[in-house]
Amino acid sequence: MSSLKRKANGSSQPGSDAKKSKQQNGNIMSFFGAPKPGPPNSSPSTRSQTLSQTQSQTQSQSSASATPETVTKKFDKAKWVSTLTPEQRELLELEINTLDESWLAHLKEEIVTREFLDLKRFLKREWETKTVFPPKEDVYSWSRHTPLPSVRILILGQDPYHNHSQAHGLSFSVRPPTPAPPSLRNIFIGLSKDYPLFTPPPNKGGLLTPWADRGVLMLNTCLTVRAHEANSHANRGWERFTQRVIDLVNERQKRGVVFVAWGAPAGKRMGKVDERRHLVLRSVHPSPLSAHRGFFEAGHFRKANEWLEQKYGKGGRVDWSLVEGRSVFDDEIEKADEDEKKVEGKGGREVENGKAEKEVKKEVKGGDEDDEFEGGEIFDEEGLKEVEAVVEKVETGEGKEEVKTEVVMKEKGDDKKEGDENDAPEEEQAEKMEE
């Protein structure tokens, strides 16, 4: 799996024939093709390859509002290349063809300085005589996975991994099937403390390209190293170049991003960051030699997202998940679904209660204006009403029986009085009258 994500003219990953051609010609153009056009101005969420639907459910805001504002300028790459000397074009072939244009537009002055050209002369000799990591095509993979306008978080590492099948241009990241190194495993432990739903990649992997695609700039202080020789390319010129990258993020991301510095060397490189605009998170390095001194409790992953949410809303957060189809925000989504169901259930009960109440009112009123008081009793202001009561039964000559009644006053509440004769049926009242 190559970390070269957007290649010249949208060409696919080269096959074996392309590799042979590169070896024969000794020209990196045979690997990458012609210079590619500028990157599309899209948010990290639209470029991510592993972001599942659960991620999109949590991003309620548009990509425009969730992406830090960047001041950009038009860059005519071909015109700039035409101003270079033949030696500069040869030395800067890698930068011309593999450094994302969103970065190249702002770094073009830096890479023609004497210091950087000396670095490239040194690297040319190293590539010709030594094994150097990462592979050439991956040195600037961080720029292609995370173009300047998409940066939300910058995590600064130190030296690339110096063993085979490890370094591929993103700090702390390794390609499968290489297992995650100890520092990265500690990063996963710290992350799981912030987000319990986080699951490390399968097969003990450590590929962090999903983070880079979501706007996490995984930058090392030195971008190359000699095989099996840690810090072998230190103090050769990379430090100045990557400091310029950090400064660019500080200057160009006007609305603010998060800078993460693990370890004292990384912390020193954050000295120019404007902390009134940006958030800087510092802690010890996640190395097994220092992680126990506070890295696991630093909470940087959640703190970064809380700050981003305040700036850009929930859509501005970074989903730290590295397993396709999962999200560290799944618990929020489940809770939102439960709350929605509760609201829907409550609304249904309110509707049912409303219907029942209307039915009762209709029953009391009889459902007709003419029969408005049918089935109810109307009392005056003193709580009294006139009612007819049976007072006597008289037998007539034809063997029939007449019932004599007279109007009496009934007091409100008499029906509820215990032992009230009015509680008895009319037949029982008549019998008592006869007695």
UniProtKB/TrEMBL annotation:
A Gene Ontology molecular function term of the record: uracil DNA N-glycosylase activity
Record-listed E.C. numbers: 3.2.2.27
Pfam families tied to this protein: UDG (PF03167)
Signal peptide residue numbers: none
Classification via Gene3D superfamilies: Uracil-DNA glycosylase-like domain
Keywords noted in UniProt: DNA damage, DNA repair, Hydrolase, Mitochondrion, Nucleus
Protein name in the entry: Uracil-DNA glycosylase
